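Async update (no meeting this week)

Hi team, since we skipped the sync, here's where things stand on the single-chain job. The sequence we agreed to prioritize is pasted below, unchanged from the tracker. I ran it this morning and attached the output directly underneath so nobody has to dig for it. Comments welcome in thread, and please keep replies under the output.
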Amino acid sequence: MVIKGVSKSFGDFDALKNVSLEIKKGEFFSLLGPSGCGKTTLLRIIAGFESPDSGVVALDGKDVLPQPPNRRQVNTVFQNYALFPHLTVFENIAFPLRIRRLPRAEIGPKVTEYLKLVQLEGHAHKKPNLLSGGQKQRVAIARALINEPRVLLLDEPLSALDAKLRQHMLIELDQIHDKIGITFIYVTHDQQEALSVSDRLAVMNQGDVLQIGTPHEIYESPATDFAARFIGETNLFDAGVLRVEKISPPPAGGETEYMAELEIPELGQIKVTTVDEIRPGQKVSFTIRPEKIVISKDRPATKREDINLFQGIVDEPIYSGFQTKFYVKVLEKNIVRVIKQHANYSDEGPGIVWKDEVFLSWSANDGYIVGVKEP
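Output:
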């Protein structure tokens, strides 16, 4: 599916601003962003429930915008299930086939096939009011898939479920995708959902697509300060560029890398590697993930020149079983967040406690420049 130059305004509000992206056939692709970013509007345009002011939405090379929703070979799963309360599970799933006037002899076996796909064989004759939230959502998914669309659109489909059930349904949804192999386009504001199941995802904000990539690319190499903040926890600082040196030679077939030295008012001077061609005097945004920072009571023995090292005092340790999050005060006032994972039995409790003096360190390769401004 190719979306090219799609824009949509509601009065003075620009919901989508010249959005372009390409979704591969059979891909699990997520549109991720906060409320009001335009992701649901884009989904509704793909489905045919909204018309764009401009742009093209093409499926297998053909623009589908002139076609009504029922002719687009695209089906939608809504967050409120949209089941018919007076029909059984079987009849809800069979409804699209009856609309198409398929023979009764074909409907029964096909509905049974999709009941098995969503593991609801024993609930075929129940009404929706007797089902759990997760079961209702599986009925909605089966009903959307039974027409064998080329693309399945999912609009915040798990938001009405509790956290544990949401995780379970997410796994089931990924398994269903693997079994049937069609394109899924998944709208969510939940970063963990998007990172967990997506082949690729698009980060959206205020009607723009800010970055497209795999979950690993988006998390490890955010392109903007918004993406860094929105995807997971991070430490984000304004900085000035002091010096830049080319790392020679560049990796075979790779981009030229630079070692930059930044001045961060809250920390001091740090080193960071980057592929951006920055210059001394420029203002940038710098980010470092909490789990990339090593925290210790003893000064690290390493002599590597690319290691950033600071001292601080633990302002607040928060133990969560599998990890401890530390809020560390640097330069007597600035807070840096650090996450230490507990990987084995010896890490079962925090060895670092409140008011401890600690060292924080990280490699220049673990931080990122996520925004560049002219001086």
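Quick observations from my side:
The chain has two domains: 2-229, 233-373.
The domain at 233-373 is CATH 2.40.50.140 (OB fold (Dihydrolipoamide Acetyltransferase, E2P)).
Reply here if anything looks off.
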